[in-house]
């Protein structure tokens, strides 16, 4: 398995509180992603990063922010948690290879189960 | 934006039955294609991938998939499923020049012993 560690693995938090999830990689991959997984929706991209301090929004970015100050760490922050953000959050990494910018597959972390009460 | 459709949401099979899960994508350019498996309570693991070359791709655990460009499809197959194949299966696409992965909504496979 790729060296991806997500923390915490489980968290219960109250509505309105800020929450930060951490993704740490040891593969030195340039690209990092945050997805949420919900029944009936599959995986939906929240934010992604294509380098240190370079991030962009995915399809469900409202209510979330990210930061990447080091290659190995990608943080996801729920600014004010709501019950609709109860989900399983997955971090993934990828890399591009060769002159044609061909991407490798995405490697996934173990996930963080977040419950907002 | 790209999209991925998985038409089978829930499939139930008996052991030794053959499996085919459908996946269609919408993108006119060159793509990379993937199938991932997620066992209960675990993270996504790569089953197989297609970048170029032979459109029939073989993956782990006896799975294979066929890329049909004219149909924008990348269907997953296995000749004989086992109880241990019970899992959720996700199709994903990545444009050859893009840095995002788009996933289908998944197909839940239950194999009955």
Tell me about this structure:
The complex is a heterodimer of chains A (117) and B (113). Chain A is mainly beta and 117 residues long. Helix content of chain A is 0%, strand content 59%. Chain A contains no helices and 13 strands. By secondary structure, chain B is mainly β. Helices cover 0% and strands 52% of the residues of chain B. Chain B is built from no helices and twelve strands. In chain B, the strands form three sheets. In chain B, strands 2, 5, 6, 10, 11 and 12 form a six-stranded mixed β-sheet that branches. In chain B, a hairpin with a 6-residue loop joins strand 5 (31-38) and strand 6. Chain B is globular, with a radius of gyration of 13 Å. Chains A and B meet through strand 4, strand 5, strand 9, strand 11 and strand 12 of A and strand 5, strand 6, strand 10 and strand 11 of B.
The count of DSSP E runs of length 2 or more, i.e. the number of strands of chain B, is 12
Q: What share of the residues of chain A lie within helices?
A: under 10%
Shape of chain B: globular
Tally of helical segments of chain A = 0
Main pleated-sheet profile of chain A? 7 strands, mixed
Radius of gyration of chain B: 13 Å
């Amino acid at each position: 398995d790729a060296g991806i560690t997500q923390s915490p693995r489980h968290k219960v938090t109250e509505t309105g509180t800020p929450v930060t999830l951490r993704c740490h990689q040891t593969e030195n991959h340039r690209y990092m992603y945050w997805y949420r997984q919900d029944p009936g929706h599959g995986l939906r991209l929240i934010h992604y990063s294509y380098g240190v301090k370079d991030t962009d929004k995915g399809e469900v970015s409202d209510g979330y922010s990210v930061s990447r100050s080091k290659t190995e760490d990608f943080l996801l922050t729920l600014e004010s948690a709501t019950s609709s953000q109860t989900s399983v959050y997955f971090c993934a990494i990828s890399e591009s290879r060769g002159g044609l910018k061909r991407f490798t597959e995405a490697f996934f972390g173990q996930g963080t189960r977040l419950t907002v009460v | 934006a790209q999209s991925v459709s998985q038409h089978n949401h829930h499939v139930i099979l008996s052991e030794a039955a053959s499996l085919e899960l459908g996946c269609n994508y919408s993108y006119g350019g060159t793509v990379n294609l993937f199938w991932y498996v997620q066992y209960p309570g675990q993270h996504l693991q790569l089953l197989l991938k297609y970048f170029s070359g032979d459109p029939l791709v073989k993956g782990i655990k006896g799975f294979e998939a066929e890329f049909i460009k004219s149909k924008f499809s990348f269907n997953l197959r296995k000749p004989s499923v086992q109880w241990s194949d019970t899992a959720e299966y996700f199709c994903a696409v990545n444009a050859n020049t893009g840095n995002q992965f788009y996933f289908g909504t998944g197909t839940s496979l239950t194999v009955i012993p």
